[in-house]
Each structure stands twice: as structure tokens, then as C-alpha cells.
Write a structure and sequence with these properties.
- This protein has 195 residues and is α/β, with parallel strands linked by helices.
- Helix content is 57%, strand content 13%.
- The protein contains 7 helices and 5 strands, in the order αβαβααβαβαβα.
- β3, α5 and β4 form a beta-alpha-beta unit.
Length: 195
């Protein structure tokens, strides 16, 4: 493996993060306000995605429930990707396209937040989850990439999109992880004050 190839990955990642800095700061700040408002009022944050987005959804929920970088009370977050028994039961009874929407129908309430993590943005199960969240009068925050795909089109005016300006999946996932860390840190700062 060439060291030059590895260094190119670092350069591309750093360049995209700097490019995204101005474009994503405001939507991330708005998402922090929305999530903090929800949990402060007794509502919950749900998260979902596919593949790497599913792993990110679980990481995000874990950091809200456990902690991010500072000790604080647990916050109500649910990764809709985490329960394999629920996922397989729902997909066996109607296909994978509705696995998140059915969970939202069962668990979601007005004022809750749905965090959708979609590097591609055209996944039917994520689109159905957004539609169901809207039915439940939930807020939707979408972490997307490229042009946002169909997820972008499915969002309402009151929803927030954090769209990474890249078509390359690996780079989009890297910025999604940074955005998730910003969300967790921002919520902590609103709860505990800035350190």
C-alpha cells in the first residue's frame, strides 16, 4: 500500500470538512436547537439509516443515552436499527421498506424527532419513515449527501437537512460522523453549559 494513497484520503477528508464548514454550521445549529427542545419537553429522538447509516444511528443513540464527552443525565434516544428481532419480524411481515415506518407508527408522538442518516438519499425505508414521522407530527432531521436524493424532496419546510456536498460515500460518512459529534456536543452544551 502506498503512503501517498493513504495521505490522499486524509487530504480529501480534510478538504471536504473545510468545504462543508460554512454550509453545514447553520443547519447543524438548528438541528441541535430542535433536538434539545424535544428532549427538554419530554419528547424522544429516534434515529435510522442503512448500512453505515444504521451504525451511525446506533452510535448517536448510544451517545445520547450514555454520554458524549461529559457526564450528564441520560437522554431519551432510540436507534430504530438496533433490534434485530423487531427488524426481522417486520421485514418478514411486509418487506424491509416499512421497518422504520412501522416502528415510528408504534412509538412516535408529536414533538418527537426523527434523525434520518442517508448517504444516498433514495432508500424506500427511509422515505417511508419520513412520511410516517410527518403523520405523527414529528420533526425530521436528515443527514444526507450529494443532492440529498428523494429524501431531500420528502422533507417538509419545518424539517432540517444537513447535506454533505460530496457524491463519494466514504467522505459523506466521515462528515456525517463529525456532524453527529457536533449534535451531541451541542446538546450537551445546552444542558450543561459550555466548558
Amino acid at each position: 500500500m502506498s503512503v501517498e494513497r493513504i495521505q490522499q484520503h486524509f487530504r480529501e477528508s480534510a478538504a471536504l470538512k473545510l468545504e462543508a464548514l460554512d454550509a453545514l454550521s447553520m443547519p447543524i445549529a438548528a438541528a441541535i436547537d430542535t433536538m434539545f427542545g424535544a428532549v427538554a419537553n419530554g419528547s424522544r429522538v429516534f434515529a435510522c439509516g442503512n448500512g453505515a447509516g444504521a451504525a451511525d444511528a446506533q452510535r448517536f443513540a448510544a451517545q445520547l443515552i450514555a454520554s458524549f464527552e461529559r457526564e450528564r443525565p441520560s437522554l431519551p434516544a432510540i436507534a430504530l436499527t438496533a433490534d434485530s428481532a423487531v427488524l426481522t419480524a417486520l421485514s418478514a411481515g411486509g418487506g424491509f421498506d416499512s421497518v422504520y415506518a412501522k416502528q415510528i407508527r408504534a412509538l412516535g408522538h408529536a414533538g418527537d424527532v426523527l434523525l434520518v442518516i442517508a448517504s444516498g438519499g433514495d432508500e424506500p425505508n427511509l422515505l417511508q419513515a419520513i412520511a410516517e414521522a410527518h403523520e405523527r407530527e414529528m420533526f425530521v432531521i436528515a443527514l444526507t449527501g450529494g443532492d440529498g436524493g428523494k429524501v431531500s424532496e420528502a422533507l417538509a419546510d419545518t424539517d432540517i437537512q444537513i447535506c454533505v456536498p460530496s457524491q463519494r460515500a466514504a467522505r459523506v460518512h466521515e462528515v456525517h460522523l463529525l456532524a453527529i459529534h457536533c449534535l451531541c456536543d451541542g446538546i450537551d452544551a445546552m444542558l450543561l453549559g459550555e466548558d
